[in-house]
Every structure is written in C-alpha cells, then in structure tokens.
Design brief:
Layout lengths: L8 E8 L6 H4 L10 H5 L10 H4 L5 E4 L11 H9 L3 E4 L4 H9 L4 E3 L10 E5 L4 E4 L2 E4 L5 H9 L2 H7 L6
Helix pairs in contact: 6-7
C-alpha cells in the first residue's frame, strides 16, 4: 500500500461544536444580503459559541455531533468555513446537501463520532485509509472514493472539471 498523498492526510487541532449545528448558526441570515463572506466568517458561530471565529486556528478541524450543516443548501456556509481556514470537518452526521456542498467546494468531511476530546486536541484524518486518529484512539471510517479525493485535492468540483475537461462520470 502506498503512502497517502498530502491531500489525503489532514492534521490539525480540534475546534469543538455540538449537535444540530444548522447553517444559520455559522452563516447567519442576519448578515445576508449585503455582507461579504469574509464579514460573515469573522462572526461564524457567534450565537452558538461566542468568539469561536477569533479562537479558530487556520488549519483547524471542526468536530461536531449529529446533524452538522442541516437547514439549508446555501453554498455560502462552506465558503465561510474555508475563509476561517477550516481544514476539515468531522461530525457524527451531516445534512446531505451540506455534505455534498463541502465536497463540491473542496472541504473534506468525515462522518465519525469523536468523544472525550478537548479544544485544541490533535486530530489526524487519513481520507484514503479511512481512519481518524484523535485522543490516542484510531476510528475506522469509510474511506472516501478516489474520485471524491481527486475532487478535494483539486480544490473542488469546478476546479477538478476545469483541470480535466474530458473527464466523464
């Protein structure tokens, strides 16, 4: 087995959120329309976890519970997370539209239940092998298909299709 590529291996500190984090909590409609994504990113999750955006370290990994990203199909929610510098998301479950928006916009998402972590704990995600290491424990997760990993490595679906104009499903 070959070593994972750098885009398949993600390491960063944990930034913890809970269950049922809907897209209005990190991409609040109270700022729309009229504010750009950078303005919204600087206020991400403020109603849920005041100061979260200011504490978030670029390259960090958001760890949440069930139903992360429910409520909306708006892609701006993913753009805001990328502007924060989010390297990946790990949650027990995701809203389906949000999950696909993440892939389409080059943001890795992994469904896995992580408990007992503290803010800032180190996490390592191996997308090719299908594992998440956190708190000294390795969790098996379904590995992402090579095609999905290629989309993520390209920076999203648009960039992937631009780089591979002859690619067919």
């Amino acid at each position: 087995m070959s070593a994972p590529s750098s885009s398949d291996l993600i390491r960063g500190p944990a930034h913890l959120l809970g269950d049922d984090v809907n897209t209005d909590l990190h991409c609040s409609t109270k700022y729309l329309p009229g504010k750009d994504n950078a303005f919204v990113a600087a206020r991400a999750f403020e109603d849920l976890a005041p100061g979260f955006a200011q504490r978030f370290e670029p390259g960090g990994i958001i760890v949440a519970g069930a139903n992360f990203g429910i409520n909306s199909s708006r892609e701006q929610a993913t753009h805001v997370l990328k502007l924060l510098g989010c390297a990946a998301l790990v949650a027990r479950s995701f809203g389906r539209q949000f999950f696909r928006n993440c892939i389409n916009n080059g943001l890795p998402v992994v469904e896995c239940t992580l408990t007992g972590l503290d803010e800032g704990d180190a996490i390592e995600i191996d997308l090719a092998r299908g594992c998440v290491r956190a708190g000294g424990v390795e969790h098996a997760v379904p590995p992402l298909p090579a095609e999905v990993r290629a989309i993520l490595a390209a920076g999203g679906l648009h960039a992937f299709l631009h780089a591979h104009p002859d690619w067919r499903l």
